[in-house]
TrEMBL record:
NCBIfam families: TIGR02757 family protein. One of its GO terms (molecular function) is catalytic activity. This is TIGR02757 family protein. It comes from Corallococcus sicarius. GO terms for biological process: DNA repair. It comes from the Bacteria.
């Protein structure tokens, strides 16, 4: 097939061989445990039972948008009121319980009814399938693609009778933002982040409790930080945050590690989040960056600054 001009379908073998040792050293220098406190993954780390982990993780991932200092108290407050076992809580949750928990709840696009659908959807999945993993795997096997699996997963979670919920808590507002269905062309960052937590690992960050899904099929949770780092490292030339760009970045990461392509995600994302590699490049940051020899941007930034001295 003729390659589209400018198309970029992953790193070449030689480029991957050059980048891999630098990324490995970069990963080794990242204090993942210290960064967990700045990441919504801190919430599922409060639990030991896999069902509590998968339920608290989906709630945390779904609400992990906007400013961390604003969504974190919301997730914390909800989980605190759900008691020691979020899985037991959602399994038993009915409309009256949802009204008690969620009356007055607002976080940016989302109101109580949106959250009630998510929580009751998870409760129904646990009652009918035994785990959120089993529900996801059913859709994955039926569709054969990650996009199809996530679309089936969110559609099943949202399949909750709405009339009584609306009567108890009012109309939904940002349900599609919380739990997109149908899944569009966007990168579905928070859903892919959830999958990374559940599927890959275990290590200091990710849980690896979904054993039926291989880490090799995961897609990078693409956000502005990963998008910028991916451009810097030549993992893609695309600048939009779409599913297609996430596929292209993941194809490049797969050249580095075919079995576990998204293992670099946490370290790269937190490098951007921490301000070490800001959107507006800073020569002093680039000069001391261990990724400089592989970066498409940094050497120019450093050279320009040197000329100006
Ligand atoms: S060299 Fe500069 S632009 Fe490149 S990754 Fe490092 S900090 Fe970011």
């Amino acid at each position: 097939m003729k390659k589209r001009r400018g198309a970029h379908t992953g790193l070449s073998t030689q480029a991957a061989e050059r980048l891999r040792p630098r990324l490995e050293a970069f990963m080794a220098s990242t204090d993942a445990r210290a960064r967990i406190g700045f990441d919504p993954v801190e919430f599922p780390h409060r639990y030991r039972d896999p069902r509590d982990v998968e339920v608290s993780a989906l709630l945390a991932a779904a609400l992990a948008y906007g400013r961390a200092d604003l969504f974190r108290p919301k997730v914390h407050a909800l989980l605190s009121r759900m008691g020691p076992s979020p899985a037991a809580f959602v399994r038993a949750l009915d409309v009256a319980g949802a009204r008690e928990l969620l009356t007055g709840f607002v976080y940016r696009f989302n109101v109580g009814t949106d959250l009630a659908v998510l929580l009751m959807g998870m409760g129904r999945a646990l009652r009918e399938h035994g785990s959120l993993e089993a529900l996801f795997v059913q859709g994955w096997k039926a569709s054969g693609t990650l996009h199809g699996a996530l679309a089936a997963f969110t559609a099943a979670l949202r399949d909750i009778p709405m009339d009584s919920l609306r009567e108890a808590l009012g109309p939904e507002r940002g349900l599609h933002h919380l739990l997109p269905s149908p899944l569009g062309p966007g990168a579905a960052k928070r859903l892919n982040l959830y999958l990374r937590w559940m599927v890959r690992g275990p290590d200091a960050v990710d849980f690896g409790i979904w054993k039926q899904v291989p880490a090799s099929v995961l897609l990078v949770p693409l956000d502005t930080h990963i998008g910028r780092m991916a451009l810097n490292l030549g993992l893609t030339r695309r600048t939009d945050l779409t599913w297609r760009t996430a596929e292209e970045v993941t194809a490049s990461l797969r050249a580095l590690d075919p079995l576990d392509p998204v293992r670099y995600d946490f370290a790269l994302c937190h490098y951007g989040m921490s301000g070490a590699c800001p959107a507006k490049t800073l020569p002093e940051h680039c000069a001391r960056c261990s990724l400089l020899p592989s970066c498409k941007v940094g050497p120019r930034v450093v050279a320009r600054a040197t000329l100006q001295i």
